[in-house]
Amino acid sequence: MNTRAGGRSERVRRDFERIHGRAPEGVWAAPGRVNLIGEHTDYNDGFALPMALPQAAVAAVGRRTDGLLRLHSAQGDGRVTELRVADLAPGTVPGWARYPAGVVWALRERGLAAGGADLHLDSAVPTGAGLSSSAALECVVAVAYEELYGLGLGRPELARVAQYAENAFAGVPCGVMDQMASVCCAEGSALHLDSRSLEVRQVPFDLGGHGLRLLVLDTRVKHDLADGAYAALRAGCERAAGLLGLPALRDLAEAELDGALSRLPAELVPLVRHVVTENGRVERAVARLADGRPEALGPVLTEGHASLRDDYGVSCAETDLAVEAAVAAGALGARMTGGGFGGSVIALVRAGEAARVTAAVTQAFTAAGFGAPAALEAVPSAGARRVG
């Protein structure tokens, strides 16, 4: 399967014509992402360093004048989901359709003239792998509607709309990092994101030029961030910030961490320690990339995984084993990426060792009785855009 958006646009256009009986007005793409470092920091107003993947959600879209929203997915059951935009409300749309429908609802909640449309979606972003498949669906609809309906929203505003759709319509209390990565990333760069101001900086990330590759090892353990665990973590962080008299944990300096932890209930200590030290890891990672030393990211990644495992408690046996096996086989560093509770691990490797590291992780999984992981290569790619 060709996962690159440009190579799929004509097929998606043809499928739209077959399903909806007319030509679309355009084809758009929005990528999934991997987060290099900065996990569970975005809803604490902190920092992150994601990059877009070549794998993207592609959507052919045409406006309608009758107020109907007609959704079809190449990954769905073959049926067209038909909704009235005026009737959209949280909790009324099940399954995958709640992500694109939620964006239309969120735009209308802002008082914007977002009307009906026919959509055909085809996503190459693996679902449940911690690679932001839902954000890709949201963001491709957001950028298509922005252009078709002339909404006048900038990229950060589109990301906020998509985040609001996921929070309020789909019921997942995520931060804004996934959506900002999907709409704002640039080819060949990682995105240094300030989640409070939404200020971004493109940080060159030339893997090939330094003889490196970034592997994504999907454990195939599916995560569901709507099951309450994610919300409980966020609530714990917000409670801790309140007890410390801070707007958000982002406002706690690493030098002040020990004193702050001594004033908190024991159950909140590891959450705060992770968030504050993770913000520090983002800054260290950005500095190493700015110095032209991407290979020096390795120890930062592995340190970040230990914090997610031991302090934040969002790893699992499969992701821990993948990290351990990758590092033992020669990876420069590895960590789980995404919200956790399964999903994927990233491993920074020298180009000549990619196959050996992948094989070592697969062998470790077999020995442990786990299903074989899926492997793909993460290449810093472009954010959401029109492709046809």
From TrEMBL:
The keyword Transferase applies. It is an enzyme of class 2 (transferase). Residues 289-365 form the GHMP kinase C-terminal domain. Pfam families: GalKase_gal_bdg, GHMP_kinases_C, GHMP_kinases_N. Gene3D superfamilies: 3.30.230.10, GHMP kinase, C-terminal domain (3.30.70.890). Keywords: ATP-binding, Carbohydrate metabolism, Galactose metabolism, Kinase, Nucleotide-binding, Transferase. Its EC number is 2.7.1.6. InterPro entries: Galactokinase, Galactokinase_CS, GalKase_N, GHMP_kinase_C_dom, GHMP_kinase_C_sf, GHMP_kinase_N_dom, GHMP_knse_ATP-bd_CS, Mevalonate/galactokinase. Residues 99-184 form the GHMP kinase N-terminal domain. Residues 15-63 form the Galactokinase N-terminal domain. NCBIfam families: gal_kin (TIGR00131). Belongs to the GHMP kinase family. GalK subfamily. This is Galactokinase. It comes from Streptomyces polychromogenes.
